[in-house]
Amino acid sequence: PFIVLRPWQNIRLFANQFFSYYGLKPKELIEAPSLSSALGLVESGKGISFQTLSSLMSLQPSSNLRYFSA
Predict the structure, then answer these.
(1) 39 and 3 in contact (C-beta within 8 Å)?
(2) How far is residue 39's CA from residue 46's CA, in Å, rounded to a whole number?
(3) What three-state secondary structure class fits 4?
(4) What torsion do the CA atoms of 69, 67, 53, 57 make, to the nearest 10 degrees?
């Protein structure tokens, strides 16, 4: 599943635009209330998510987390 934030949050708006631009339609979405809760779901293996660099730096995710940066 793809873990997204609530519809009015900026990172969710970005995700929606990303999906639309690339013609992607995730089969399953999990909605999280915050970046930290989304990151926790990712760390527990529940799915994947967009995160901001600032959130990754401040939340200090576990070392087994894989991420890509553009």
Answers:
(1) no
(2) 10
(3) strand
(4) -140
